[in-house]
Amino acid sequence: MMTKWMAKGYLWLLLALLYSPILIIMIFSFTEAKVLGNWTGFSTKLYSSLFTGGVQRSLVSALWNTFAIAMIAATVSTLLGSIAAIGIFNLRSRTRQVMNFANAIPMMNADIITGVSLFLLFVSFGVSQGFTTVVLAHITFCTPYVVLSVMPRLKKMNQNVYETALDLGATPFQALRKVILPEIRPGMISGFILAFTLSIDDFAVTIFTIGNEGLETLSTFIYADARKGGLTPELRPLSTIIFVTVLVLLIVINKRAEKSKS
Amino acid sequence: MQKSDCIIGVEHVSKFFGDKAVLNDVNLSVRKGEFVTILGPSGCGKTTLLRLIAGFQTASEGVITIAGKEITQTPPHKRPVNTVFQKYALFPHLNVFNNIAFGLKLKKLPAAVIEKKVKQALKMVGMTDYEYRDVDSLSGGQQQRVAIARAIVNEPEVLLLDEPLAALDLKMRKDMQMELKEMHKSLGITFIYVTHDQEEALTLSDTIVVMSEGKIQQIGTPIDIYNEPINSFVADFIGESNILNGLMIKDKLVSFAGHEFECVDEGFGQQVPVDVVLRPEDIYIFEPSEAAMLTGTVTSSIFKGVHYEMMVQTPEGYEFMVQDYHCFDAGQEVGLLVKPFDIHVMKKERICNTFEGKMVDATHVEFLGCTFECREVPGIEPETPVQVEVDFARVILEDNEEDGRLTGEVKFILYKGNHYHLTVFTDWDEDIFVDTNDVWDDGDRVGITIAPENIRIVQSTKKEGSGK
């Protein structure tokens, strides 16, 4: 009885430690106080000012940039990753192992290393840094995750299905479009959502590839804002909204994974 | 057979994976409307042959024709054949109707025509009213019916079936066999059917092609293959059989199991070693009497439903499998009789192991990638190519691989009444044949030794006799 109670207590303590920072932000997003930690009564004013332009224009444009970058990066990496997964899957088992390993390295690599190396790459090729370089960088680190989420669908597929389509008169491209694509679509969607969330919250890679033309994404904006002294109060409701959105997306991914398992 | 009758021609086709030959110079001609079964144990190349005809793989050598047109390099979607796979391979995201309509839609046929054809195909396989069912909700047998409908709806010239019933249970398999045979009759198209199940092959086919190790062993009607197997592999693979070493004394007289028997075979020559096949149902078994050609003791008797299967040991040391409607209990003395036309005599493929080798010095010879000690052979220079002969019974197999001069894997076991005849695939990639009384299993790793006095050196004068 005692051990059971302690196990439960430990679990709750752990959850409290993990989630208290987010909970504090969420609670204090419903008050007007400029300084975090002062409770001046319940209010949704920060939410309304977030949506009615009460905040700096730079926050709005940072938000917009973040969304656009995530959208483009997720779309492109979903395409690249799916094609790569099909290619890797059809390799001989030896080469396939090597490729799977090569695919795993960028995921394990520290973000800061990826960021610095991409920075050096762009500089040495004389590419001026800005929106494009950020998108390219995000595609780079998102693609392996798409490969990883498409691969299990390919493995689960009946290996004769593609051949059957050819046998029934489909060209290789038609077989890909009419048979392989519907089979791996759930994996592609999961991969897209994963890439999207990864892109939204990336800071380390973004800061090295964003250049100094004044382009800001949400993460770089918050970083700069915090260093200027004190966070803009509207960031509290914004963080809350982003957290809830990502949470919903994650639940969707997990539900899909469960469904495909059964 | 007229040339114009030939729907599929396979000429000198070989297929290599790396340097391993999966198919080795295969020749096959299939007549229009025939039901041909390619039969063989797993790994014999039968599926590869089917995949070459379907176009999923291309031949390394040789030519394949369909209806007189060469299609060796044609991609699968341009061939007038359709395939049914063992694991159904239905498209899981499409319902039954759309699965069957897949090929027709690619041909851009009008919707009304497609609907009519799909309904016909469903009726053909006995699945009317299943159009809008999800394929995952169907049983294995139903899924295979849909897969067959999906293939035949395209009206192919040839239907290829790759072990289509292997995943079904026995009862369902028997039902589907009958239905396939009916379907073949009413459609009138050519069926090429791959299976490892000899009973299925005998039941369904007009022609059976027996394959082993990438080569065609025999082509014939089920009755021919069963009654006149061309070699001991076919005899052993098709049905149950007693295979014994024999000696053809002269025309119509053969000796085996320590006795001489009258038979109907001629033209083997005199005093020629042969293989003798007796089907267990062709041996008469009765209480000991004057009529008995052989006597023996029943060692086991098992009820098999229709008949009893009994093992009979003769005093000469040979064991026979006998099937009869009457039961003789274990321990009982019996007499056996075989009619002359039930004795099948086959030419032996080889009577001893023959290898290409070369002399190392006067008492050493190199073959199978190893150097063996042998009796002193005077007058042969080192490095001279020679032929080496070793009797089957003189090859010694060791449990421990390290104890042998070279190592190998047991890949084929034939019981010859009083001993086992093994084919051992050595790591030098050549077969060595062994007669032994010890029991080995398929796939056992063994060490191989040969005593010096059992190695016969034959100075190779010409190339003649190599591989015999």
TrEMBL record, chain A:
> Gene3D superfamilies from the xrefs?
MetI-like
Q: What is the lineage of its organism?
A: Bacteria, Pseudomonadati, Bacteroidota, Bacteroidia, Bacteroidales
The family line of this record is:
Belongs to the binding-protein-dependent transport system permease family. CysTW subfamily.
| PROSITE patterns, alphabetized | ABC_TM1
Q: Where in the cell is it found?
A: Cell membrane
The record's InterPro entries line, in alphabetical order, gives: Bact_Polyamine_Transport, MetI-like, MetI-like_sf
Q: Which residues cross the membrane?
A: 12-30, 67-89, 101-125, 131-151, 187-210, 235-253
Domain of life (superkingdom): Bacteria
Matching entries from Pfam families are given as: BPD_transp_1
- What is the designated name of this protein? ABC transporter permease
What's in the keyword line of the UniProt record? Cell membrane, Membrane, Transmembrane, Transmembrane helix, Transport
Start and end residues of each ABC transmembrane type-1 domain: 63-253
Classify the protein's membrane topology as the record does. Answer: Multi-pass membrane protein
Looking up PANTHER family in the UniProt record yields: PUTRESCINE TRANSPORT SYSTEM PERMEASE PROTEIN POTI
From TrEMBL, chain B:
**What are the residue boundaries of the ABC transporter domain, all occurrences included?**
8-238
What's its catalytic activity? ATP + H2O + polyamine-[polyamine-binding protein]Side 1 = ADP + phosphate + polyamineSide 2 + [polyamine-binding protein]Side 1
Q: Which Gene3D superfamilies match?
A: 2.40.50.100, P-loop containing nucleotide triphosphate hydrolases
InterPro entries xrefs: AAA+_ATPase, ABC_SmlMolc_Importer, ABC_transporter-like_ATP-bd, ABC_transporter-like_CS, Mo/tungstate-bd_C_term_dom, P-loop_NTPase, PotA-like, PotA_ATP-bd
Highest rank taxon of the organism: Bacteria
Q: What are the record keywords, sorted?
A: ATP-binding, Cell membrane, Membrane, Nucleotide-binding, Translocase, Transport
Q: What is its EC number?
A: 7.6.2.11
Recorded hits in SUPFAM superfamilies, A to Z, give: MOP-like, P-loop containing nucleoside triphosphate hydrolases
GO molecular-function annotation terms? ATP binding
Pfam families referenced in this protein's UniProt entry, alphabetically: ABC_tran (PF00005), TOBE_2 (PF08402)
The broad enzyme category this protein falls into is translocase
Give a short account of what the protein does.
Part of the ABC transporter complex PotABCD involved in spermidine/putrescine import. Responsible for energy coupling to the transport system.
Quaternary organization: The complex is composed of two ATP-binding proteins (PotA), two transmembrane proteins (PotB and PotC) and a solute-binding protein (PotD).
Family the entry assigns: Belongs to the ABC transporter superfamily. Spermidine/putrescine importer (TC 3.A.1.11.1) family.
NCBIfam families xrefs: potA (TIGR01187)
Protein name as annotated: Spermidine/putrescine import ATP-binding protein PotA
Gene coding for it:
potA
